[in-house]
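Record pair follows.
FIRST:
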Amino acid sequence: MKYWYRVQIIALVFLWTAITLAQAQTSGRNRERVREYLLNGGMLILNTGMGSKPFFDSAREELNELFPEIPVQRLAPDHPIFHSYYNLETVEYRRGVREAGYTSDAPWFEGITINCRTVAVVSRWCMASGWDELEDEDIMGYSIDSAKQLGVNLMSYATAQRAWAKNAVQAMQFVDEDPHATGKMFLSQIVYDGEWRTRHAGISVLLQQFNQKTEIPVQFSLREKRFSDPDIFDSPMLYITGHENFVLSDAEIAGLREYIRSGGFVFAEACCGRRGFAQAFERELRRAMPEHELSRIPEHSPIFQLPNQLEQIGVTPALSAHMNNQSTISPHLRGIEIDGNYAVILSPYGLAGGWEMSQSPYAHGYDDHGSLSLGENILMYAITY
């Protein structure tokens, strides 16, 4: 009981801070200060008092003002916030939520995620009424037990992520020295409507490490393109990543289909091992290539042979705990094979955090060495097959 009251006090401090900061943002300078606070490891928790829709909408608008370059996105049930202490893919709601028309049992948080850390969260339904143990079923909020569990999870997540953010390796910036240099190979990271940039330097770091490891006289240049951009055909490989669900437009689906059928190579990575992205990518890929299915790539594939012989790869602590404390696993990739070669490869486990040598504490992914080794092999396959 003492533990819960301590968590409740901390939660209310976070909540009060969030509301105070949100109300204070009447100038660009105040927004800059809040943005700086969040980028430096802080977290903003916005509770929707009594389930107020106007507050929820205004909170989302304010988050859009704080981070116009990053979409406010609903957090999927597999988000670490819902598993940092209690497993809460489903929660209990009061009658008021049902009468408002919400029928799902999934928790409803929306947020801003930067470099695999959700820095701001707004809850659609009220949590504070549960923290205060109010019994009124007409409140548009979570049940008392679910509200308390969500509060504990938020505190656990914020604490762990703040410690990680303070100690994480600073991401390196990719430098394209000469776009007209001979031997230059253009790779494109795919932009889409959603959280498409998770670890902004990850793929660039991998490209640099690949050149150093293999001494192959090819310099890579990274570009940002949509599947619908006509010049994606200048890139021998397209890289796409993310955490959450996304939907491609018809034009993007058509571009993806034409790119693959023209001999292009698509490499997809579920950053932090998030199911939401992996499921969305597989669904959108079926729209583009309904005649093909993603299947697991066998262990004897050349992908696992060069330049690194990969039989077992180390995994992150979070993935290890999920796999009954296995410290290493066989590399797991899924792909679409066309005319004897893989045209599409999906990693269901996170790699980019390892490329930056700073995997999130909640990442279901490979460790730093394993991430770089597997990434180098995928690049080698892309340019040789």
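SECOND:
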Amino acid sequence: MKCLYCQGLMEQDTSPVHIDRQGYHLTFDTVPALVCSQCGEAYFDEQEVSKIQAVIDAIEVSSVPLRQRQLPVAA
């Protein structure tokens, strides 16, 4: 398979994933992916994307009370 951006060779490897969403930040250091040997672009399998989405969904469900809670602000 060739990279859609630079036409480089895609190789099975791992890639980090960084997610910034609604006041929280997630980092997955080594997610299996096809990674371009030339430009580093990563393509993730549907299975990996589903796992990441499941983590995001779990965080959103469990963090709702935190978002609704008012914290006092120091003067």
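COMMENT: The chain is about 30% helix and 35% strand.
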